Amino acid sequence: MTVRHILTLNAGSSSIKFALFEGETEPAECVRGQIEGLGTIAPHLEAERNGAKIADERLDPARAADHETALGVVLAVLERVIGRTAVEAVGHRIVHGGIEFTRPVVLDQVSLEKLDRLNPLAPLHQPHNLSGVRAAHRAFPDALQVGCFDTAFHRSHPWVNDTYALPREFYDEGVRRYGFHGLSYEYVVARMKETAPLYEQGRVVVMHLGNGASMCAIRDGQSIGSSMGFTALDGLPMGTRCGQLDPGVVLYLLQEKGMTPQAITDLLYTRSGLKGLSGLSQDMRELEAAGTPEAEQAIAYFVDRIRRELGAMAAVLSGLDAVVFCGGIGEHAWRIRARVCDGFDWLGIELDDARNRAGDGVISSDRSRARVFVVNTNEEMMIARHTARLLGEQSNL
Ligand SMILES: Nc1ncnc2c1ncn2[C@@H]1O[C@H](COP(=O)(O)OP(=O)(O)O)[C@@H](O)[C@H]1O
Ligand SMILES: CC(=O)OP(=O)(O)O
Ligand SMILES: [Mg+2]
Q1: Residue nearest atom 8 of ligand 1, based on CA coordinates
Q2: Which residues are annotated as catalytic?
Q3: CA of 209 to the centre of ligand 2 (A)
Q4: Residue 237 is part of a domain; what is its CATH number?
Q5: For 51-98, how does the pLDDT look when each residue is reduced to its tens digit (9 = 90+)?
Q6: Which atom of ligand 2 is nearest to the CA of 211?
Q7: Do 109 and 232 fall into the same domain?
Q8: HEC profile of 328-359
Q9: Which ipTM score applies to this complex?
Q10: 20 to 30 Å CA-CA from 243: which of 41, 142, 297, 299?
Q11: Which residues line ligand 2 (CB under 6 A)?
Q12: Is 397 among the domain residues?
């Protein structure tokens, strides 16, 4: 029997991550790579095959000026690496599934057109996710194209955590607290089931802190609340997004400053957050190294909003058994983890300094009532599992 190959594409706001999996039932990763720093002056490509580096280079910014150009680089790398290997399916991270797409689906023309309509609700992601589907279809015309949605994991939200206090018809037409980063949360829950089953059943707050950042309150493995809402703008401040904002500010920008909807979109999605506050960079590595007062204030605001959200989520969960850090910042920035957890002993959190600096697995002390973990999230693995299942179902038809 020939081995099945599944390719996964994950277009984030500052990166494209890709991976190739092989295997009949449980997919095993054989190639993984990413281009990070899209749209910055220093984009970087790295890739490995079975753990060995096959690419590690700074890219000419013109080759990663936007997602579409960078995707061309990714497809060229893949062609070099996998040659004529048949790819049976391509699994895509699609950030917004709206009301209708609540689980992974095989994509066709009709579903793509419906998903195109959600572009305005996730302008940093959705158009790139969908152009990834179209490019993959051109590159692998015989492969099944599967869409896996960031919003799907959060459909278990109880109504109070799913609605806004607007007249009811808005909820009915889809103005809801969808929540995002769902593939990452789903992976973390699956990982905890394997390695820390006691906590998987408990009251867990997961922090996905990357260029996009959100937090999720999880009970019994299900999302009961997210810091993100109708769009991926709400909640925590991010690389370039503002996070929680009084809607009155938007009215002020429209009415008093005469800004157009496009100018406001640009401001809130691409000029705010860490970049806007620091006046320097959206990248936590650069802010930590800079040490300017503005960079310090940007970090302080980021940490403060995470701490507020942690307190709120512990209240929603009626207590706390575990906290998980993941995403580019959550996995690598030990100083941020220390600042987030500082003084939370009243919630039962106590970090072990050496474990936190090492940043792998459990980072809380043995005395800590709540356990704190760092998990290297793997959205690609989650996409591959969903895609393998749908591929299996299709071949049984
Ligand atoms: N070693 C590090 N120290 C601090 N921050 C880091 C480090 N590595 C990555 N980051 C942060 O993680 C971000 C990327 O996170 P990631 O989750 O990969 O991005 P995306 O949201 O595009 O998927 C970078 O913009 C940077 O702020
Ligand atoms: C939803 C979101 O913000 O995703 P990312 O962190 O990958 O940009
Ligand atoms: Mg991401």
Answers
A1: 328
A2: 150
A3: 9
A4: 3.30.420.40
A5: 999 999 999 999 998 888 999 999 899 888 887 778 999 999 999 999
A6: 6
A7: no
A8: HHHHHCHHHHHHHHCCHHHHCCCECHHHHHHC
A9: 0.98
A10: 41
A11: 12-13, 95, 125, 150, 180-181, 210-212, 232
A12: no
Cβ pair 217, 154 in contact under 8 A: no
For residue 160, give both structure tokens: 């109070």
| Residues 271 and 369 occupy one common structural domain | yes
Residues 337 and 251 in one domain: yes
Q: What tokens appear for 388 in the block?
A: 């393998």
Q: Does residue 182 belong to any structural domain of this protein?
A: no
- Give the number of domains in the chain: 2
* Lookup result for tokens 């993941």: 326
Six token digits for residue 393: 């179902």
Distance CA 287, CA 261 (A): 30
pTM for the full predicted model: 0.96
The reply to whether 57 falls in a domain is yes
> Can you give the residue range of the structural domain that contains 75?
5-149
Whether 176 is in a domain gets the answer: no
**Whether residue 243 has its Cβ less than 6 Å from ligand 1:** no
Q: Do both 211 and 109 map to the same domain?
A: no
Q: Whose CA is nearest to atom 7 of ligand 2?
A: 12
With b for 16 or more beta-carbon neighbours within 10 A and e for fewer, the 149-158 pattern comes to bbbbbbbbbe
Rounded to the nearest whole angstrom, what is the distance from the C-alpha of residue 303 to the centroid of ligand 2?
18
Say whether 37 counts as a known binding-site residue. Answer: no
- For residue 52, the one-letter residue type is A
Instruction: Tell me the pLDDT tens digit for each residue of 9-36.
Output: 999 888 999 999 998 778 999 999 999 9
